[in-house]
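Submission sheet (multi-component)
Chains listed below:
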Amino acid sequence: VASTALVRSQHVLIREVEEAVLLRAAGDGAEVIALSGSGPEIWSLFRTPSTPESLVTELADRFNVAADVIRSDVLATVQTLVEAGVLTRAHA
Amino acid sequence: MRTTVDTLAGVAAHGLLGTRLELPSEPPPDGQFDSLLRQLDSHRLLGLAASAASTERLLLTDEQRQRLNSEHLDAMCACLHLEATLLDAHAAFSSAGVDFRVVKGPAAAHLDYADPALRPFGDLDVIVRSEQFDVAKSVLEESGYRRLAPEPRTGFDRRFGKGATYVAEDGTNVDLHRTFVMGPLGLRVRLDDVWATTESFSLAGTTLEGLIAEHRLLAACYNAIVGDRSPRLSTLRDIAQLALSGDVDTDRVVATAAGWHGQHVLARGVRTTWETLQLGDVTALSAWAERYEPDPAEVALLAIYHDSAAGYSGLSWATARMLRPVERVAFLRALAFPRGGRLGKRGWGLAQRAKRAARGYRRTAV
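Outcome: structure written.
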């Protein structure tokens, strides 16, 4: 997953509430994902196609931390978003 | 000390230019907050309250604010599930060739507010064409929905009814409308007007059709003035939101209301909104509403809806009187001798139904 370019699915229902973003894939039985902390930032960066690894680099620069410190958290969040059906493979 | 009612109205008016309402200058006592939170939820005001709290217009303790935000988050999760259901309904209706418009909550949230998170809703409302009402019912039933109250007689819904409420296994309610309100005012709505126009919005990449602004405003006024015994504050906010948006053409909405015999409803809806939310701005529409003087027939018609003693039978008789003779017979027959036990659960026999119907007739035959 880390090197696959991903982008927001078009078929996502979204609400921005206070300091969180709620996402739900359209379709039967999907669950609502609540993103808080750096989650909304990660979601925001997937407006354009990005690989999770490039996202780690981008966020590390933005928050001035080592990429290794945040990699596992970022990849776990991305994995959750993929499983929830709100991120999809970007087509070239 | 400000009462919960004052605070609710203040929240409903939050962000509207020209309101004279002010929110309390201190957080509510904890004992009062529980009740406030419940009522914010039932009036669908959690979004406006969270917004007012985030800008410190609504003063809360840290704990109260956390609870409000948590309730708002729960309400928005519910809205996302409802919107997913709406998309499923859209797919099912579309494949069956059923034309529909989204009305009330979801349409208001997406068409009339800068941020849909400001406008929670608790169910789905769609309006379908009279001639497609039966197909639409079948679509919902085939999708696993159960109708709450059976149709009195075959064909009653599409000829005389306001609509029907369906409930899914998970408790999701879908109100399937044919017109905006039951009774004589509902039958006078020119449904061709509704179907001749549309305003669309996008949900998860799907385009959904709603009503145009003038029709949304009228529908909200019907809901506020004759739909609920006491209007939800979110409905009055919807009216204010539309009336102050610049999207509503005053001449057009007044002319449409006249065509639907609904000018009194429009005037009352706008006046009630201006009074409740204490709006100081005078617009062309609010000035018209203030000036509008209903004729005695309009006053009598609206009184039927507000006369709790006449109740459903009063409305039924008033409806019957405006129908052509053949339709009147079919209408009264369906109510007096329903198939499917519409009144059966109340344990009423034929004599009791007849007595109740006659009582309604005496009260409304003016």
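Remark: The two ends of chain A are 16 Å apart (CA to CA).
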